[in-house]
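Morning run. Coffee first, then this:
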Amino acid sequence: MTSTSQLPITWNMNRENLTVSVIIPTHNRSASLRRALDALQLQSYPIDLMEVTVVADTCIDDTLAMLQEYKAPFKLHAIEVNCRSASIARNTGAAAASGELLLFLDDDIEAMPPLVESHVRTHQARRGCAVMGVYPPKLQGATRYFDVEVRAWWEDKFYQMTHPEHRFEYRDLLSGNLSLDAALFARLDGFDSAFGNCGGEDYEFGIRLLKAGVPFVMATEALGYHYEHETNNLDRSFRRSRQEGRSDVLIGQRHPEIRPLLHVNDYEIPYSLVDKVLVAVAFFWPAAVDFLAAGLRKCLDLLQSLGMRLTWRWLRAKLRGYWYFRGVMDELKSRSAISSFLQGGPARADLSDREIEIDLQQGWEAAERLIDAERPDGIYLRYGELIVGHIPPQFGIEPLRGVHLRSILATSVSDRLLVAMAANGMPKNSETALENPLIAVDSYELVIGH
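And here it is:
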């Protein structure tokens, strides 16, 4: 992962300047859209190198009138479409864009002044990447269990993604604050328009980016605040869960190798007897289970009022799982179709012919350099003649980088590594090796713990 935190904020006009097309799809949220446009006026990037294209998708509020009256210091284009599809809206904006760089922003994100500049600087440092900015939810003072859960999820998501050792997967491709070279976006045919209004087009696009060898990069200063909570609630989250079920099926149909990783597998072998009964009844009498789910939804409000947070979380997870399953049913219709869908993919998600073997006895830095040179999908680790671990390949995840090795050894093979080192002769500081998280291996520091 590349971070831009070390990059200066002041724009250097002597460096190559990229033209940027900011693309904002919107649907009946004129107030949020105005806030997003106002924030773009305050960007530190030269305003004459920016254009903003708003794609108004089936808007029946005052969005179009607001755009006609809006006074912008940058080039502002408005395109009206009637598709109710974020993927088509984004593709439409990209097709009309003239910038070298495409920057996709959601209409409920308030961009901080360095956002555009940080995207540009990251692309200048590493051309050909998919660059994502951070957009935590603006939820100060919110105390509802749902708001707290949403905030915690997003904060943890960005915390993990901004760690240098994070290994990106296709689910990390977030289109709310995303930039790519316009030529690269066109070459990959953009977002899959077949996803319509069920969402998931960003995850599918993430798979194609990874298959094409496009690195994911976080630009930590490309910060925007997400105001989705203004329209987000429990009922909407359950609708999204149903859409996620549908979109996972579409992803699996386009990329069969991903099928073993999808939550669809959870419903082939339900966890408990209650789950088995509900799955069986849902196929034959879905309206009855929907009615039960609606009643349980009301229980969430009661649990909140009683302060029963753990029970609230358990029930919400069950309801999310049910509505996800209903989305799967929407696409596949029957239990036999689900079984056929899962059997149509590989039996395992850890198969690849791009694996290498590394001898950690040769030194820490040597191992990192070899991984960066080979970018393997999997690694067999040994110390001298002794095998200490295996990092198996995984579908839908970026090839390994040298920086990944540190955390893998710390969390997966530290015990076996210590045994192998002892068997082959500990380094000079071995007396404190079991207590000290740093162990020297041939004069290199090998981190095996925190």
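Residues 309-332 form the longest helix (24 residues). Good start to the day.
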